[in-house]
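Suppose you are handed a protein chain with no further information: no name, no annotation, nothing but its sequence. What can you learn? This example shows the usual starting point.
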Amino acid sequence: MANQSKREDDRAVLQENNHLNRKIEAVDRFYLIRSKHEKDLPTLARAIIFGIKSRKESMGVIPSVCKTLSILVIDSFRAVVKTVLKIVLVYPLRVVGAMVKSVKKMLGMKVKPSLRE
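A reasonable first move is to predict its three-dimensional structure. Written in structure tokens, the prediction is:
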């Protein structure tokens, strides 16, 4: 009788271990698939995921996501400001320079070729 209950206990433990092993294998497959897909992501997406993962341990998930998003917003704002400054300052100055150059040519003055040409 004691042997039979011990065998049943052993079977129950084995079934539980098999069940846990299947769960572990499923999780391993999930992370393997996820890591393969992460390699296919663009560089910016991988950088965002890396930023969230690296801060998750020290800050927590929500603050980590907020910090990463704030960095993205700052970078986007910087790019917008750079583009606006180009449109407002650089391009009009190029037009003025081209106009001065054409006036000099019309007056017969020597004009150096620009480095952009």
